[in-house]
Write the structure tokens for this entry.
Amino acid sequence: MERQTTLKRRVSLSGVGVHSGRPVTVHFNPAEAGTGIVFRRINEGAEGRLIPALASEVVKTDLCTAVGQPGGDQVMTIEHLMSAVAGLGIDNLLVEIDAAEVPIMDGSAIPFVEAFEEAGIETLQSTRKYVRVLKPVRVEANGAWAELVPWNGTRFEVEIDFATPAIGRQSIELDLDPQTYAREISRARTFGFIKDVEWLWAAGLAIGSSLANSVVIGEDDSIVNPEGLRYPDEFVRHKTLDAIGDLSVAGGPIIGCFRSYRSGHRLNAMAVKELLADPSAFELVHARKTGTQFADIVPVNQGRL
């Protein structure tokens, strides 16, 4: 059976919050089996309570994913970090952060991947718990949709459709494993449009956004960044990066297929909550992975997390 993992040693990163524009340092600490991914604010004035990265703790999905308590400690923009955690198969971490927002770094997940690889990943003795999809669940809004369906693997099929010719309609299908994630997904950056900058700033958002951490599309539908794109279809790869992070709050890696069309943080979170709200739609299992598929699947418990 697959074993749980954590880091071999503490590692830290510093940067700015993409929405706040404020400096932030985050420390990734090894944690014992069964801890999961938990955040703790360590800045002055914070309560310092542990915030599990679970669907029940998601409090915001507008332009980012945030966890915490209304009126209490919250951590924003966790999706790129959580994507790297899920992509590399890390089960347990204590994440200490001295501000309210995870640093945007270069707009992708590769800085987190490199930090985790530098620290090293340690295999623990306890068995990993998976969330296995038993029947389809689907959410829709304004022509967009997201669904989770049974699949003997961890698969993502993501499609986007933008009116601008700089993006257009793009799709990707992949079976998730650490090597595929690092090579095909981790370097894809967040993106935005120059025409949206003024209203975002007026709303107190994207203050820390720049060409150093975002792919920017100009008024003439061109890519403003001098270096261009990292992948020809970097936009759909980044949406997949986001989806991997958003689905990581299910309580364990998912055995199933996530499919979406024009989805974002809100619909991704809704799909996870829809799955977990129906005890007949999932089960908790231990399993052994062979290639991209699972074998020796053994139920742990069935019902609500």
